[in-house]
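#structure-requests
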Amino acid sequence: MVTGPTLTDLTDRAREIFRLVVEGYIASGQPMGSKSLAGPGGVNLSPASIRSVLQELQDAGLLAAPHTSAGRMPTEVGLRLFVDGIMQVAEPSAADRAQIERGLAQGGTIENALAAASSALSELSAGAAVVMVPKREPRLVQVNFVPLSPVRALAVLVSEDGGIENRIIDLPEPVGASALEQAGNYLTSRLYGRTLAEAAGVVRAEIAGGRSALDSASADLVQRGLVVWTRDAAARPVLVVRGQANLLDDAALGDIERVRQLLEELESAEAIARVLDAAREAQATRIFIGSENRLFSLSGSSVIASPWRDGEGRVVGVVGVIGPTRLNYARVVPMVDFTAQTLGRFIGQDGFSRK
């Protein structure tokens, strides 16, 4: 990440002019000139004095002057300084909170709830809203292997909530009933009360270290089962995206190439999932500005993301907003945070189910 001056490096006058430039740019999408900064609500300085301060801020790397305008706009470094040190967040209004909660209050499937939450967040933030769908990782109580043919077996996984999932496993050579039973008993003992992800590392380490007490056929069956389950989980859709059309506002259309690039980036579900995954372990809302995130560096876009947790405090997904760097951070940051909290509060209730 590129670093720049800190707030203590700026005079009070420079700090105030910098704040006005950033807030004006976020509100209008246009560079701010000395005349507008000296107008009503601005600073009590002459345009010439303001221009001198603007040049100092530009020399410090906090502002830039587009060649088509005499005004200034914040750089990514400037936006980072503003977000971290100057911005005053505004809590979502009662109406905004009600709109976010409305779709979730209807119950139904988790997928529908996430779609409703992301649609509300997109509309309120004027950006594209993304919600990482929680991967379904049930806690297991039993695993059985059922022979389908000498070289194919059906793995049956039974979870604590009574759900049953089946997977077909192809085997390189015939496996007898005793090996199937041994493999099932072994996995049941290791997976009981755990998700597959929680136990997979333990199982693989035991087999690799020769501590599993499995014969070679049973060990191979277990290994193949883990591969199939892992691959299957990774292939499932993990994102709900809403509001791409919000990115096509009047200001954005003046830079259509950037918008085209951003829309292309939004088509890569796997890449977006990696971006959101970086916020999974965060204790608070994460903000990625422009090139701070590799995926959106070409379009110069920002991502505001927050993890959401289940009733037991476990992180199960991430909700976020993607848009131009002139996002209204002060409004969107608490809105994303509230949406994450609301998802965690509602999703665990009895009114929700999986498809």
